Each structure stands twice: as structure tokens, then as C-alpha cells.
TrEMBL record:
Cellular-component GO terms for this entry: outer membrane
One GO process term, biological-process aspect: Gram-negative-bacterium-type cell outer membrane assembly
Name this polypeptide is given: LptE family protein
Record has Cell inner membrane as a keyword: no
Keyword annotations of the record: Signal
Signal peptide boundaries: 1-32
Domain of life where this protein originates: Bacteria
UniProt key word Signal: yes
Amino acid sequence: MNFKIKNIKIVQPKFWLLVLCLSVLNSCYSFTGSSLKDEKTIQINEFPNNAPLVNPTLSQQFSTDIQNRFLQRTTLKGTKENPDILVEGEITDYSITPTTISSNTVSTNSGGVIQESQNKLTITVKVHYENKLHPELSFDRTYSDEAVFNSNLSQSEIESSQVKIATDRIINKIFNDIVANW
């Protein structure tokens, strides 16, 4: 019995070298970027609104949004007893002020130019982060962000859109400082 072997391709050594390199790199670096290794539980307390100007829904909405961010984007489990991570704080500023940032202009029929006025919403939040497993990572920081908008928005439009923009940015900063640890 004679067999002829045809169409056999020999895998080149370059392929195996590439596979080996990727395996080594994958074992050396975690692509999640998370600094949370041993932590399993988190407690996020409600953030009371202690700002001079009070948005009645801001405290509840901010607290819910930050809890959702951590519970949906990490493997941490929420708890009320002996958490590995504690996040708490307060809303210290909620203000709407006129701004002089350049804005759109509107030409009138008579050839004049009217500059649209704009306002700026600023929200500031103090955060206490406590990591019981790695106390050297704990911190107290203040986060602030703003949203600029046309002054013709109603109060309900400001609260439904502009507040969401500013609080999402603040929550991103807090989340990145705690989880990403860049």
C-alpha cells in the first residue's frame, strides 16, 4: 500500500511566535483597566442636596444614577453591611448663572444683530470614597461640572436635559477615579 500525501501545508514558525506573544501579553495585562481586584461589595449612600438652590429631584436622581453606574459596569454587589467600598457625599452647589460665553447671533429684518443670551448650570458634589481593603486608595474630593444652554429653556427643560448632562459627567469622573485608576 502506497499513500501519497498531497496538499499538506506546514504552519510557519511566525504564526506560533505570534500566538506565543499574544498569550504572554494577555497574561501580563488586564484589558478591563479596573483597579478593583479584591473588592466584592459596595455601599453607595444617598447624596443629600445641601446646595443653596435646591432642585427637588436632584438628590434622588444623582444617587440612583451613581448606584446604577457601579452596579452595572463592575462586578461589585450592593450591600448595606460591612462593604469593601463605601461611597458617600453631598451635593454642595446647584446654580444657574448668566454667562458671557459667545453664543449664536440672529439677524433681524432691519439688518440688526441680536445676541442670544445663555445661562450656565453648575453642579458641585463632594465625595468621600473609602476602600476598606486598600485604605491608601481612599479619598475625599470635590467634583464639579457645568452645562451651558440658551436662556429661553424652561425650568423643567433645564432639569430634564441640562442637569442630566452635568451629573453624567460628574458620575463619569467619580467612576473613573475609583474604578479605572488611570
